[in-house]
Amino acid sequence: MTTAVETADGIYELDRAHSTVQFAVRHVGVSSFRASFGEIDARLVLENGSAELEASAVVESVSIADPPEFREHVVRGDDFFAAGEHPLLTFRSTRIELDDEGRATVSGALVVRGVSAPVGASGTFSAPTEDAFGGIRVGLELEATIDRRAWGMNWQLPLPNGGDTLGWEVAITAHLELVRTP
User: Fold this and answer.
1) Which domains does the chain have, with CATH numbers?
2) DSSP string, 54-112
3) For residues 101 and 161, what is the distance between their CA atoms, to the nearest angstrom?
4) One pLDDT digit (tens) per residue for the chain, 182 residues
5) Strand (E) or helix (H) holding 170
């Protein structure tokens, strides 16, 4: 990790109540379909000027409820997440860069459907801050755009005008608040 920010070494665990992971994909070319994962986890390790991030999301916790057949197709179907065989999405960083102006760049491997592919994300890092109860917190807010085909999500349905029903690019946002463990 390359960093010029003041960091507090330690292990930081996700504060689930104050964190979200969402994705958005273009639908029939007129809007973006958005969903989030209710069950997420993350751990950030800051040590001697280096950083490592590991994160996961439970596929079944995706915020798609209705109609049930749509949920089944996206969550459990082979065209998308295939949650029966691959219940978790995971991310492990290979490089994290933080600067003294709060910018963050994170590279790593995202595993979806058992397929690992590289992902780069950028955003902001909030340096360690003491909360009202004496805990130490950091924040990472990251954005990445991926091509879903890299993970075997190749489903498509042509529109009458020749366009695609579902975009190939997926925008991922992660808003992570983490608390240093004692």
Assistant:
1) 2-180 (2.40.128.110)
2) EEEEEGGGBS--SSHHHHIIIIISTTTT-TTT--EEEEEEEEEEE-TTSEEEEEEEEEE
3) 46
4) 444 345 589 999 999 999 999 999 999 999 999 999 999 999 999 998 899 999 999 999 999 988 999 999 999 999 999 999 999 999 999 999 988 899 999 999 999 999 999 999 999 999 999 999 999 999 999 999 999 999 999 999 999 999 999 999 999 999 999 999 98
5) strand 166-180
